[in-house]
């Protein structure tokens, strides 16, 4: 999920940036230090905004940098195992499908698609079952995070996905299931 955090931090402004407006310099340093990085217990910082300098800068003898206390807002994405997402399929590969989970990508292994067995079709680049269900690039899925390994960068982060639980799957499949249940109810009422 997405969160807006308010953070107060001591920021080191290099001497090379002292010709800039101090707020702009602080914002630039904060963005370089925080954006697109994952922090343990916090998540992936997407953006830094609303930077405010608190007090005067401090010069340490023998250090050419100036230190400021700054207050800022950070837009953060963090997730957890068992969290459910609506995700778009970005790529189909022989062993599964990659789908978006917020700003990150997760792997839906072929064994985690459904209770029935799915196969990779090289010609159509889809995952399909004998029961006529299929997944292709661009499909929207309702899925759950089954495993999560958050590392310091988004490229090193690993997210395992599943659709094997009840209520999860391709949105078209769920619509078909609803229609099937309604049809069965009508047939029972006629009897």
What does this structure look like?
By secondary structure, the protein is of the alpha+beta class. The protein is 17% helix and 49% strand. The strands form three sheets. It has a five-stranded mixed beta barrel. The chain has a four-stranded antiparallel beta sheet with strand order 1-4-3-2. The chain has a three-stranded antiparallel beta sheet with strand order 8-9-10, with no helix packed on it. A hairpin with a 4-residue loop joins strand 9 (126-129) and strand 10. The radius of gyration is 24 Å and the shape is elongated.
Summarize the structure.
This protein has 191 residues and is of the alpha+beta class.
Structural class by SSE content: alpha+beta
In the residues, how many domains can be counted?
2
Strand content: over 45%
Strand order of the largest sheet: 5-6-7-12-11
CATH architecture of the largest domain: Beta Barrel
Q: What's the CATH topology name of the largest domain? A: OB fold (Dihydrolipoamide Acetyltransferase, E2P)
Main pleated-sheet profile: 5 strands, mixed, barrel
CATH superfamily of the largest domain: Nucleic acid-binding proteins
Rounded to the nearest angstrom, the distance between the terminal CA atoms is 47 Å
Topology order in helix (H) and strand (E) letters: EHEEEEEEEEEEEEH
Number of helices: 2
Q: Using the alpha-carbon principal axes, give the shape.
A: elongated
Assign the CATH class of the largest domain.
Mainly Beta
Instruction: Give the overall pLDDT as a whole number.
Output: 89
In the predicted model, the low-confidence regions spanning at least 5 consecutive residues are none
Question: What's the helical proportion of residues?
Answer: 10-25%
